[in-house]
Amino acid sequence: MSELSCTPTLQGLLSYEDAVERLVAAARPLSGRLSVGLRDALGHVLAEPVVSSIDVPGWDYSAMDGYAVRAADCAVEGVELPVSQRVPAGASPDRLTPGTVARIFTGAPIPEGADSVVMQEVCEATENGVRINAQVEADSNIRRRGEDIAAGQEVVSAGTRLSPQHLGLAASVGVAELAVCRRPRVALFASGDELVMPGQPLAPGKIYNSNLFTATALLQALGCEVIDLGIVEDTLDATKAALKRGAQEADLVFASGGVSVGEEDHVKPAVEALGSLDMWKIAIRPGKPVAFGHVDGTPFIGSPGNPVSLFVTFLLFVRPFILRMQGRDDWRNGSMRVKADFDWPRPDKRREFHRARLTFDEAGLARLSVHPSRSSGVLSSVTWANGLAVIPEGQTIARGDDVSFLPFNELLT
Hints:
Elements: H1 16-26, E1 33-37, E2 50-51, E3 61-62, E4 66-69, E5 79-81, E6 83-87, E7 101-104, E8 116-119, E9 123-126, E10 129-132, E11 142-143, E12 154-156, H2 164-172, E13 177-181, E14 185-191, E15 195-196, E16 207-208, H3 210-221, E17 225-232, H4 236-249, E18 252-256, H5 267-274, E19 275-279, E20 284-285, E21 291-295, E22 298-303, H6 307-325, E23 336-340, E24 351-360, E25 366-370, H7 380-384, E26 387-391, E27 402-407, H8 408-411
Parallel strand pairs: 6-7, 14-17, 14-18, 15-16, 18-22, 20-24, 23-25
Antiparallel strand pairs: 1-13, 2-12, 3-11, 4-7, 4-8, 5-10, 9-10, 19-21, 21-22, 23-27, 24-25, 24-26, 26-27
Helix pairs in contact: 1-6, 3-6, 4-5
């Protein structure tokens, strides 16, 4: 066993917290980076911070349509002043002559000498200029230079997964290209002689390979490049061959199925023969047999073959590992506390991550219900649900109790 070995908890099982911490500790940030244009940067992870070379805004500008004035010239309500210039956005105004006003528009530079903008709604055009029907205070309705961003300020941190707003912010400071981490390459295969691909005839005893498409989409949602190794027959030699190929071509090998202890489960002995199995069996439900190790130095994670188990264990364990490979610090699964709209009278020795649906009643109060099936083969339950209810080991729950909830919309990015 490697340095990741630990003291077992329940009947040789590793606790959820220990498993996650050990996985994350073993993840190594990817080497290599590339430069991409803003149009192609969405979803990449930033390798170097974006630092502004300019102030934003780059000048004092008007926050609204109105008139740029000197407050001292408008100390009395109803004063009438001539209009000496017109300043649209993008113009370069002249210095404001004392005793006059400048017609100005939103976003336009403030003329030198002006110290306030009066909104047009309190102004009245006259034959000789404009009447200002309000008392004016200095520094009104002006956005100051550098108010949003100062030159030299870091605006997007390294390790950020780039969203549309990050790209807009980078563009606003004049950055056209970004240094990003290369995408993780993940080799994926499914074990099982019973599997066939969708679109093929379904013979007796066969099932369609849903795990390939679930896992591929989960990996792509995290910005990974997927290497599809296909369906691997249930033999030790075939499993070893798939693991060796994946280790050569990818940064991570991820497999579904074959991680238990049956006669047709070959992943565990194959990994042990080619490298090391550093973690196996976790005190959770679903997904107890989650394997982690290395094959020829390349990390390997194996999930159970049941489709719900794959989905849940990916969110709980594979996602944090990949985020750390990308250099991200936001790998922890954030939860929220909500009121249970269900009873859970029989405690389990393992922590359960049960499919759950968060809704809001007519009063706007959050309520959490759970799917009636605990089977890890009911894949429709994860489309019914919008998150996972966390049921602590050895605990019962009564309707109205506070329960931790992991929303899918936080776990799928």
